[in-house]
Amino acid sequence: MTIAEKVNVTTGFNGNCVGQTGQVPRLGLTALCLEDGPLGVRPVRRVSQFPAGVTTAATWNRDLMAARGTALGQEFHDKGVNIWLGPVTGGPLGRSPFGGRNWEGFGSDPYLHGVASYMTVQAAQAEGVVTCSKHYIAYEQETFRDGFTILTSTNQLPISSNLDDKTAHEVYLWPFAEAVRAGTGTIMCSYNEVNGSHACADDHTLNQVLKQELGFQGAILSDWGGTWDTESSALAGMDVTMPGSGFSGFLGDFFGDELVALVENGTVPEARLDDMVLRVLTPILQHQDLSTYPQPTFNANDITAPTNNVRRDHYKVIQAIGQEAITLVKNNRKTGGGLPLPAPASMSSLAVIGEDASASLYGATSCGNSGSSCLIENNGTVTTGGGSGWAFPPYTIDPLAAINAFVCADGPDINQHLENWDLGAAAMQASQSEAALVFISAYATEGTDRLNLTAYSQGDALVEAIAAVNKNTIVIMHIPGPIIVESWIDHPNVTAVLVAHLPGQESGNSLVPVLWGQASPSGKLPYTFAKQESDWPPNNIVSTDVFAPQADFTEKLLFDYKAHLFHFRQIRWFDAKNITPRWEFGFGLSYTDFTYGELSIAKTFKVDNTSIQPTSEPFLKSTTNPGSSMYDILYTATITVKNTGSVSGAEVAQLYVSFPESEGEPPSSLRGFDKLALAPGESGVATFELTRKDLSVWDVQSQRWEIPQGTFKLSAGASSRDFRSVVSHSFA
Ligand code: NOJ
């Protein structure tokens, strides 16, 4: 290749995809097509709208995570997309509950997020598409995120995420290491700055950490408008600029002729350019035979252009994930109400209340291709968030549609009220019904952080109005992250609450089996619900409007439940009060009961056979724990779980590690989970395989992972606070 040809492979151009590289016609190399997004091919028709990442995480089911990755991989492949701009891999991870994009990824814990990232990347790439794990790194707020919208107007730099080395390794890098291990072909650098450098021009995080320490062999591509300068990005390790001259160049026309000149005059070594091209083409050629791989079948700039239907039978996995994600957080059966509902034939009336219960009055395409919810009110049931992480649904089975279909033969009369503003009329329907299902929602989107943590369209007032007149008020929430539920949660007439997350196109079909007890809810929360905003770590969305806004990650390792556990310790210590969370990370009830046996730990060395692209993360070698990989399995912990109730159900047994106190680590950190489906009376063994990394902390001084000396505590249980068996152990 000539220099100009090589540069073409590294630069974005205009075309029918959200991004495409340049061609090298002389060698038969066509443009590579890059397309959003994490829950479906966007903005493209004749595709599925999958459950969001956060919903998938709430299943805690590895098989479903992989099944979603497979199905998404097939749709991107069949549309002719070479690089899928997903999944979101811990950027954002959810440092702030206000984060506009938290729902795109897999919840607010690095370990859970890492498992889901690994499963998704591996499964999707097996279908031929190359994944792009994003957004690297410490991209935790939308406010002040990007220069291309703010530089022109106010001359402002993007937010700088300022974090220390230990926090970077143990929290934000962890899920990316899992994506690298799973073999991700590309990674997207983010809009924000990291410790004062643009993330797409940061030698430390790109060259030194991602490419050297993790040994990432694929390409780093910029977020759309994340490049600020050709020379510094190229030298810092960025391999592709997007969209380059695409989008008419308005996001910054970098690389291209400028890179040719910099290589020709020796500023950027030609070896660096060769490296860029190899990093782009190696994963592509590993997974795709470009002579047979489909060409794009759509035009992302024209959603009316004819295109192929790639949905196969993916509605099944969409329904299954939506159903398994549903998390029961309150259920009071004492007064004869709560969930599951009685058999349909034994009910005469059921109220279905709220705009979130039924379809958007304006249709799926009413907002063009930008997001599903451009209207503030009456926008219909929330199945997804907005922005580039959104996808068109081919149809939406809303909750009311699925309920009507279920009760049609012999079930209750349905008394519906499908807006949130006429509380009197809504209460009238509920007062005539044996039970009332109240649907509330919240919406989040790329480009802006959440304005508040309350339900959308006065959902709280709606719940209160219904609970005032109906003794069996059941709340269902379609939400992108936590909301504050304190105004109504303890109302005695609120008998049950389900978090149904963002379920995608099969929303109602996922919900009905849980409502009527054909399936017991088995989701667990992938983030914590607090009682008030001030219970989250402070400074979490910086909105101080200065030239160079700074977000200092002063909470360090105390992320989500770890912060709450930390508070909890302080409560005990200072006898303070009222800072226990509403529902903690990992929490979720069932229609049945589970008991746990005793946790046991055995030394069981197993050579790492899960790293498709082995990392080169440095660690302290020891004779106690031999082996050459961070991902060798050193110990296996097991615990028996028994279904002691009267219906079938599934329990997500969780393992938390407490490092020796001297390490200053959070009180406990998730290091394993196992979901067991159990019939009444049945027992199963939950197994947690502990890798070297699971037992290590990042030692800043020696710049390596080390298993600390001293006594660990391992706790197994039903949530991050509900430990059923605790053992002490030394590993070093
Ligand atoms: C910006 C978003 O941050 C990124 O996730 C997306 O892939 C690109 N835009 C392209 O739409």
TrEMBL record:
<protein>
    <recommendedName>
        <fullName>Probable beta-glucosidase G</fullName>
        <ecNumber>3.2.1.21</ecNumber>
    </recommendedName>
</protein>
<comment type="similarity">
    <text>Belongs to the glycosyl hydrolase 3 family.</text>
</comment>
<feature type="domain" description="Fibronectin type III-like">
    <location>
        <begin position="651"/>
        <end position="720"/>
    </location>
</feature>
<dbReference type="GO" id="GO:0005576">
    <property type="term" value="C:extracellular region"/>
</dbReference>
<dbReference type="InterPro" id="IPR001764">
    <property type="entry name" value="Glyco_hydro_3_N"/>
</dbReference>
<keyword id="KW-0119">Carbohydrate metabolism</keyword>
<dbReference type="InterPro" id="IPR002772">
    <property type="entry name" value="Glyco_hydro_3_C"/>
</dbReference>
<dbReference type="InterPro" id="IPR050288">
    <property type="entry name" value="Cellulose_deg_GH3"/>
</dbReference>
<comment type="pathway">
    <text>Glycan metabolism; cellulose degradation.</text>
</comment>
<keyword id="KW-0325">Glycoprotein</keyword>
<dbReference type="Pfam" id="PF00933">
    <property type="entry name" value="Glyco_hydro_3"/>
</dbReference>
<dbReference type="GO" id="GO:0009251">
    <property type="term" value="P:glucan catabolic process"/>
</dbReference>
<dbReference type="InterPro" id="IPR013783">
    <property type="entry name" value="Ig-like_fold"/>
</dbReference>
<keyword id="KW-0732">Signal</keyword>
<keyword id="KW-0964">Secreted</keyword>
<dbReference type="InterPro" id="IPR036881">
    <property type="entry name" value="Glyco_hydro_3_C_sf"/>
</dbReference>
<keyword id="KW-0624">Polysaccharide degradation</keyword>
<dbReference type="InterPro" id="IPR017853">
    <property type="entry name" value="GH"/>
</dbReference>
<dbReference type="Pfam" id="PF01915">
    <property type="entry name" value="Glyco_hydro_3_C"/>
</dbReference>
<dbReference type="InterPro" id="IPR036962">
    <property type="entry name" value="Glyco_hydro_3_N_sf"/>
</dbReference>
<comment type="function">
    <text>Beta-glucosidases are one of a number of cellulolytic enzymes involved in the degradation of cellulosic biomass. Catalyzes the last step releasing glucose from the inhibitory cellobiose.</text>
</comment>
<dbReference type="InterPro" id="IPR026891">
    <property type="entry name" value="Fn3-like"/>
</dbReference>
<keyword id="KW-0378">Hydrolase</keyword>
<dbReference type="GO" id="GO:0008422">
    <property type="term" value="F:beta-glucosidase activity"/>
</dbReference>
<dbReference type="Pfam" id="PF14310">
    <property type="entry name" value="Fn3-like"/>
</dbReference>
<keyword id="KW-0326">Glycosidase</keyword>
